[in-house]
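thought: user wants a sequence for this fold. calling inverse folding tool.
action: design(structure=
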């Protein structure tokens, strides 16, 4: 069968700072090809809806599969499914990914029959079974693990047995040069581990994977890396190098193969401090950027976000990263409760440190604990506003003032690293990009004001809403994590970490899940 994989369009963040390859969809497409079907992939972050419909017209796919990791993309995916159904009534249309898994039933209802099913969990685990059913007996679709359809729900989704079996179908992606991450232009993505053993209340990474943590073997990781042509590589793991041994083994294999890349990764401050030697080694291998989830700059804020890492430790982690000569980016979560004074304090603090600071807005997401406890407070059910740039909880300041302060703060922070000043500091890098015809980063330097504008943010709240999110049932006392899991939680045996690391995780997590 002809299988077309589709990634929806960009969100605000992607319009400026980065554009990354749809790695999950590439894995799904790899599984589809392995099952003997023809696969194509289109990424609307780097293409248009017109491109998509042209491809549908020309190629006439039997199956169209949308990826919906981001909640803010739900309306776009539903509308694309409806338009596709209108022009190709017999095409089987389904959706998978992170957010689709948490909102499966409501997505089907919004689509009113235009989406045949949602495939929850890891797509590569049962996509070939699903296609088998579509090809030979459509009535058996609802028996495939992970399927949710209007006719019913199949058995629970399965965890893939080994992350070593498939290599992402990177070759399917046209325009690979459009993917970049700051100065890493062009930039590919790679996965060394999947899942997260922590259980932060605002995050759905652990609930999706049933608090499991699996690793790609060093051999397979390096084989995949060696096939990547881009000089920049984004390591997509939620928390890089949780287990020092794994980080060393991959690093040593890279050194043996003589692979030279520039890397970007995300990790936790306490992991960085615990595994200093791994990060030192990776700096020698080409680690250039690190994203540290600091989230708040005061003890109260950190407690609220349930990062059981003390502020002293957070700053120690920053110091250590600086000592490695790595450019660090940190994320702070702006609470809708912030007033002008709080924004001013944050601006001042951020200007005093050399790091890149990103500010996102506290947003409860389906699949998280905070969604269960805070969803009743939300003042909008418009999916498009759930991009961590909009305020969906009531703000203490009038909304217009909140956005004015937010964007003012974001602009001050962005301008530390953008515009003419950045160009002056990065002349050599930029010239290198231009010589190779890479313009993603250079163009991003002046885009900020066009995308981040308080008036536009406010106006987004007044758009007509075609699809509204469903609220969760009210919680009485504590949220039972088992109700949040997409993939069944395999418990301790599902976490590929040694006992000392398991204890370290236990001491630094706040939840009470097994
Ligand atoms: C890498 C990453 C990013 C990258 C983007 C990568 C990309 N090209 O899309 C960057 C850094 C840009 C990013 C940004 C943001 N992210 Co992000 N991100 C991740 C992260 C850490 C890993 C995703 C990944 O590549 N995983 C590896 C691949 C192999 O897995 P995958 O994509 O999930 O695909 C698998 C399944 O989901 C499924 N699947 C996926 N697509 C499909 C399609 C079909 C048809 C099927 C059957 C299955 C399927 O099968 C795949 C293979 O197993 C996840 C957390 C996580 N652990 O999943 C958060 C996560 C997806 N991000 C999240 C958020 C909120 C954001 C931001 C909005 C936040 C921000 N700070 O601004 C932005 C906005 C993104 C945007 N598009 O503008 C949330 C999503 C919450 C939600 N419900 O919407 C997550 C879950 C993190 C969290 N803490 O909760 N992100
Ligand atoms: S450490 Fe917390 S925030 Fe980070 S991925 Fe794990 S659960 Fe999510």
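)
observation: tool returned 514 residues.
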């Amino acid at each position: 069968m002809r299988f077309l994989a589709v990634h929806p369009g960009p969100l605000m963040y992607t319009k400026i700072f980065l554009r990354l390859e749809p790695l999950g969809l590439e894995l799904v497409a790899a599984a589809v090809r392995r099952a003997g079907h023809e696969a194509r992939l289109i990424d609307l972050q780097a293409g248009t809806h017109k491109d998509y419909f042209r491809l549908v017209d020309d190629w006439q796919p039997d199956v169209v599969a949308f990826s919906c990791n981001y909640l803010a993309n739900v309306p776009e995916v539903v509308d694309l499914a409806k338009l596709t159904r209108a022009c190709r009534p017999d095409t089987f249309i389904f959706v998978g990914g992170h957010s689709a898994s948490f909102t499966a039933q409501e997505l089907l209802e919004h689509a009113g029959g235009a989406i045949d099913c949602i495939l929850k969990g890891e797509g590569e685990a049962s996509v070939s079974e699903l296609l088998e059913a579509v090809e030979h007996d459509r009535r058996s679709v609802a028996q495939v693990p992970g399927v949710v359809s209007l006719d019913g729900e199949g058995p629970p989704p399965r965890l893939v047995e080994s992350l070593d079996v498939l290599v992402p179908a990177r070759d399917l992606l046209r325009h690979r040069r459009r993917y970049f991450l700051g100065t890493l232009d062009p930039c590919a993505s790679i996965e060394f581990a999947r899942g997260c053993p922590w259980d932060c209340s605002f995050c759905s990474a652990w609930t999706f994977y049933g608090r499991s943590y699996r690793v790609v073997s060093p051999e397979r990781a390096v084989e995949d890396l060696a096939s990547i042509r881009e000089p920049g590589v984004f390591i997509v793991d939620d928390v890089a190098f949780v287990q020092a041994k794994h980080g060393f083994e991959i690093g040593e294999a890279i050194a043996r193969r003589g692979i030279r890349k520039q890397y970007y990764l995300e990790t936790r401050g306490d992991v960085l401090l615990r595994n200093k030697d791994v990060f030192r080694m990776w700096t020698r291998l080409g680690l250039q950027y690190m994203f540290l989830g600091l989230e708040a700059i005061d003890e109260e804020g950190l407690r609220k976000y349930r990062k059981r890492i003390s502020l002293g430790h957070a700053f120690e982690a920053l110091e250590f990263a600086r000592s490695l000569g790595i450019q660090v980016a940190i994320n702070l979560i702006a609470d809708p409760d912030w007033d002008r004074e709080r924004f001013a304090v944050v601006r001042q603090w951020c200007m005093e440190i050399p790091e890149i600071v990103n500010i996102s807005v506290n947003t409860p997401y389906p699949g998280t604990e905070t969604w269960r406890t805070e969803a009743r407070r939300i003042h909008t059910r418009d999916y498009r506003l759930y991009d961590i740039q909009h305020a969906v909880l009531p703000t203490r300041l009038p909304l217009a003032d909140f956005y004015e302060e937010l964007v003012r703060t974001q602009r001050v922070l962005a301008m530390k690293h953008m515009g003419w000043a950045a160009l002056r500091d990065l002349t050599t890098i930029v010239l290198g990009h231009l010589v190779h015809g890479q313009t993603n980063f250079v163009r991003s330097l002046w885009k900020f004001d066009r995308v981040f504008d308080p008036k536009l943010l406010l106006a987004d709240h007044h758009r007509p809403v075609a699809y509204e999110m469903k609220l969760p049932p009210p919680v009485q006392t504590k949220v039972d994590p088992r109700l949040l899991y997409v993939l069944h939680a395999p418990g301790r045996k599902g976490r590929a970490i040694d006992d000392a690391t398991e204890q370290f995780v236990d001491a630094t997590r706040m939840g009470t899940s097994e």
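thought: summarizing for user.
answer: Here is the designed sequence. The chain has 23 helices and 17 strands.
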